[in-house]
What we know:
Helices cover 36% and strands 24% of the residues. The chain is of the alpha/beta class. An 8-stranded parallel β-barrel has the order 9-10-11-12-13-14-15-16. A 5-stranded mixed sheet has the order 1-2-3-4-5. A 3-stranded antiparallel sheet has the order 6-7-8, with no helix packed on it. The longest helix is centred in the first third of the chain and has 36 residues, at 2-37. It starts with a helix and ends in a 21-residue tail after the last helix. Residues 29-41 have low confidence and may be disordered.
Amino acid sequence: MKNKLSKNIYRAGLIVTFVALNALVLFGLSSVLAWLNTGAERTGMLHTEVLSKDVYLPNIEWESLENPGRPMEQQTLGEIQQDYLNAWYVKHVAYKTNNPYGIEDYYTDSSRVNLFKTIAFNKENDIHLEATTLNHRPQLEFYSADGQLVVITDNEVIEYQEIYEQDQKLLTHQDTSSYRVMLLLEDGFWRIRHMVKQSAKTQKDSVSTNKLAEVKGKKIYIENKEFQIKGINYYPKDSPWDMFGENFSRDTISQDFEIIRNAGLNSIRIFLQYEDFVKAEVLPQKLEKLRTVLDLAEEHQLKVVVTLFDFYGDYSVLDWTLTHRHADQIVSAFKDHSAILAWDLKNEPDLDFDSRGKDLVLQWLSHIADQVKKYDPNHLITVGWSSPEAAVNLQQKLDFVSFHFYKDLEKLDSDFEILEQKIPNKPLVMQEFGMSSYHGLWNPFGTDEKDQAQYHKKMQDFFKKEDLAFMSWTLYDFEEVPSDVVGRLPWRKSRQRFFGFLDQRGEPKPAFNHITH
């Protein structure tokens, strides 16, 4: 009886275990099916999740999708494009890190052999590459009837590379090429089976031009009339360094523009922060606020220098496609706006030379300059260099040269004479200058409002004598300056708050009498 009971218990245990295992299997299958039916990201099924949408966005324009056989479905096209760009991106990452992780997800067995050999060779010789592609013009050549094979020709692929050995840069190289590419559908993903480099087939972009500003010799012209910049750097009093944020006020900006115009000035410089405009996916509401500012400037007969990429300091090669898309969206949206005088590519990029490398910063600026000109041939471009010494950089790319001056006035004549000698054929603009009127606890030996007024009188006398364009810093004294701008040291923050021609109540300071000549 005891043995019989034990057997029944044993059988019952087996049955319960069997049922439990089957329940787990069914649960697993149902979870997988549910996951597939939710439209989960395909990249989540790979060994590596390549979020190229967020980190890699080269410009891609399909030239042709005509195929004599099977027509290309829109969803399939999107998957091919995404997997193809992912393949480029993982190769860039692999060559930078000398780690093949992710290669097998976007290349077939045969095509990844050479990639692995290159990575192994570079690793052994302490070589690495930092690279990106900036432009693709793919053209569909063949799409098989069974939907398993695609052949494309990718024209005008702009590739940029920096080659390093033991962290020392050996070579910088840019090339424009075409590629014949075969992709196979494997396990639901398009993988590169074959890629052959060909001679480039280039195509001129047909961008309509309507020159709204141009340079002739050392002068700027608008509608064939000479335009001498007499301007000011502008932030609203109550939202400095956050002009396009929650406190954006059309009425406040309109009132300020009226003050600026009535003071005898004809232009302003404003700043677009890279993070604030949300990097590569620029927010439409930010563009609308910018449009409001430009419309108000036009209403008050003010020209605008729009500074792009304020508070950006990465410059890494793999980040370039994101900054290009950022610039494309903003510049394309306003390429025909008549209030814009110029795009200032970056505020004081030379301050990043030491931390990021001078060559890298200049290469990035050069490419951004090309990109801005590509999408907006109607306006001018410049760079807001932090000093006269830095302003000699990249002058061949710029329409006019802008520099900032915060040195002692004793150095002004000699610095300007040297700059004119080094840049004899471009308009020059002193784009920032000023003096703080803070004289208090954190700066007991500082300058006061009387000193500030004398400073601006001397500067205006200099501009008149040299026939030099200018943009002063800044319209208002500020209640608060963000720590991100000048740090947390109270003597630096206090000084930065009092550069204005109007005090914190909006009343004119003595310097206001010398805001222009």
